[in-house]
Amino acid sequence: TQLLEQSPQFLSIQEGENLTVYCNSSSVFSSLQWYRQEPGEGPVLLVTVVTGGEVKKLKRLTFQFGDARKDSSLHITAAQPGDTGLYLCATFGNEKLTFGTGTRLTIIP
Amino acid sequence: DTAVSQTPKYLVTQMGNDKSIKCEQNLGHDTMYWYKQDSKKFLKIMFSYNNKELIINETVPNRFSPKSPDKAHLNLHINSLELGDSAVYFCASSQVAATKQYFGPGTRLTVT
Question: Does the pLDDT value for residue B104 go beyond 80?
Fold first, then answer.
């Protein structure tokens, strides 16, 4: 089973600041998904990256897939309180999604 | 319209009891899943069903028995509940196995 390590585990920053969170594995990903889970809700898919070096943007969120497809990052510009949540990366293999350890992000107004 | 719904939202029960959680999806998806999220927020798959057939059983104790009466429903029955079963359980569905998955709101199970 592929182990996905996310860092940092916890992150608390002021509104308006920028941040980056990471997802790393010792194995190569076929593809990688990022989910956001708000308190009391289920995870919601934000993006899927497939190609090494790929960059996708979703408003203030920028997702990057590493060239070797073993890591990914999520950068948020000018964070807002609505960005607060648990960010999970996930990869597909053996007919199932395996989720990372998660980053709990808190944006302080 | 709710895409994936679960009932109940909260479930508090005593050790040794038997309980069920229900899940329904109105997306017309073929594949449904049950996940367990522990107190550290680690989310792990338990089961997946495709068209009412079990595809994945991720070494879950046999006290947990999923049942899919039709492809829109996947219920989870748990026998002889233990303290360690306390967690949030999520149901999910997807059109093709493991592509974009849609999650329900979760059921927080507390075993006392």
Answer: yes
For residue A67, what are the CA distances in angstroms to A26, A49, A83, A100, B43? 14, 12, 27, 19, 27
DSSP state of B11: E
Q: Give helix then strand counts, H and E, for chain B.
A: 0, 11
Query: Is B88 within 8 Å of chain A by CB?
Result: no
Provide the 10 A C-beta neighbour count for residue B75.
Answer: 18
CB-CB under 8 Å, B100 with A92:
no
Distance CA A94, CA A89 (A): 17
- 8 Å CB contact between A103 and A5: no
Residue A33: per-residue pLDDT: 95
Nearest residue to A14 (alpha-carbon basis) of A75, A84, A74: A84
CB pair distance less than 8 Å for B100 and A43: no
Cis before B69 (ω within 30) = no
Pair of tokens at residue B57: 């059983």
**Residue B106 to residue A42: CA distance in whole angstroms:** 6
Tell me the pLDDT tens digit for each residue of B45-69. 999 998 888 888 888 899 999 999 9
- Determine phi and psi for A30, rounding to 5 degrees: -75, -40
